[in-house]
Amino acid sequence: MESGAGKHWTEEEVKALLSVWSEKNIRKQLHGTLRNKGIFIYIAKRLQELGVCRDWKQCRAKYKNLKYEYRTVKYAHNSGDVTKTMKFFHELDAILRYEPVTQLAAEENGRCSATETQLNTSPTTDSTQ
User: Fold this and answer.
1) Among 23, 36, 46, which Cα is nearest to 54's?
2) Of 99, 68, 66, 72, whose CA–CA distance to 85 is shortest?
3) Cα separation, 30 vs 27, whole angstroms
4) Which among 69, 67, 70, 50 has a CA at the least distance from the CA of 10?
5) Three-state DSSP state, 50
6) How far apart are CA 89 and CA 84, in angstroms?
7) How many angstroms separate the CA atoms of 114 and 40, rounded?
8) Domain residue ranges in the chain
9) pLDDT score at 122
10) HSE-CB for 56 with a 13 A CA cutoff
11) Is the pTM of this model over 0.85?
């Protein structure tokens, strides 16, 4: 099977990936996990059950590309440029808006420090792969 950018994803394949990605346990495991090969192997198996034949590397590449494109559009919207858009933006927004984001917080002495904030989620104690 081809790997990487060699094979174009159909709209149905992307929808299947988004449906698996939107599951709470998958989102939890993907967030903040650097060594995530096992998670993407699981995602590829789940996609296979849905009739999508992609290997874990293709799933990870598509995940990273979608996430990058989403953040680019989101940043543009936050900067006032509402002309920039992408397919599946609303689906990705529903998935990614609950991830912790690094924000700059002003400290008492006027310096800024990076802090993590998390909206609408509780802290997790689960160990990830």
Assistant:
1) 46
2) 72
3) 5
4) 50
5) coil
6) 11
7) 29
8) 11-97
9) 37
10) 10
11) no
Q: What angle do CA 60, 125, 105 make, to 5 degrees?
A: 80
- With tokens 């994803």, the residue in question is 9
- Beta-strand ranges (E) seen in the chain are 101-106, 112-117
- The Cα 26–Cα 43 span in angstroms is 8
What mean pLDDT comes out for the span 64-91? 90
pLDDT tens, residue by residue, 25-76: 898 888 878 889 999 999 999 999 999 999 999 999 999 999 999 999 999 9
Structure tokens that stand for 77 in this block? 């919207």
Hunting for tokens 């858009």 — which residue is that? Answer: 85
In whole angstroms, give the CA distance from residue 108 to residue 77: 30
